[in-house]
């Protein structure tokens, strides 16, 4: 017979033994500069002219930092969302270009933004008897 197990297991003596999976991190953390701070633009949809104007997101509290790496899809979608969907593809492309090429030449303090995913059962309070 076969059994469906809804959480990670490994075989042991003919049984499925549950285990707690390690946290999974994003492939590559996003590097940002905290000092000097990002030069926030008045218009969220405006065209940036320097790497220091390519800021993080308000929702994850990285808007005071500027990007030192190419943004991932989550950041790009966040920019669109925070601009109410009115940001142009040209502005997005320029932000990506400046973030990739701007480098951290004038950055005094680098921080990393990483995403962590943890698998959990739906009832994490339940214990086996």
Summarize the structure.
This protein has helices at residues 73-82, 89-102, and strands spanning 9-12, 15-18, 24-25, 30-35, 66-67, 109-113, 116-117.
Notes on the protein architecture:
The protein has 129 residues and is α+β, with helices and mostly antiparallel strands. The chain contains 2 helices and 7 strands, in the order βββββααββ. It has a 3-stranded antiparallel beta sheet with strand order 5-4-6, with no helix packed on it. A hairpin with a 2-residue loop joins strand 1 and strand 2 (15-18). The mean pLDDT is 81.
Q: What's the total helix number? A: 2
Chain-averaged pLDDT: 81
Which structural class should the secondary elements be placed in? alpha+beta
- Give the % helix: 10-25%
Helix and strand run:
EEEEEHHEE
- For the CA atoms, what is the radius of gyration? 21 Å
- Which word captures the global form? elongated
Low-confidence stretches: none
Side by side, the strands of the main sheet go 5-4-6
Please indicate the percent range of residues in DSSP E strands (runs of 2 or more): 15-25%
Major sheet characteristics: 3 strands, antiparallel
Question: What is the number of beta strands?
Answer: 7
């Amino acid at each position: 017979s076969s059994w469906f197990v809804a959480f990670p297991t490994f075989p042991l003596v003919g049984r499925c033994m549950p285990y707690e999976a390690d946290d999974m991190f994003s492939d590559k953390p996003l590097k940002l500069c905290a000092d000097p701070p990002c030069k926030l633009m008045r218009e969220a949809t405006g065209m940036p002219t320097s790497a220091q104007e390519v800021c993080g997101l308000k929702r994850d509290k990285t808007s005071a930092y500027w990007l030192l790496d190419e943004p991932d899809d989550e950041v790009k979608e966040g920019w669109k969302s925070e601009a109410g969907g009115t940001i142009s593809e040209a502005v997005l492309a320029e932000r990506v270009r400046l973030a990739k090429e701007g480098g951290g030449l004038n950055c005094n303090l680098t921080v990393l933004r990483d995403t962590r995913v943890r698998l959990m059962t739906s009832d994490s309070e339940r214990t086996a008897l």
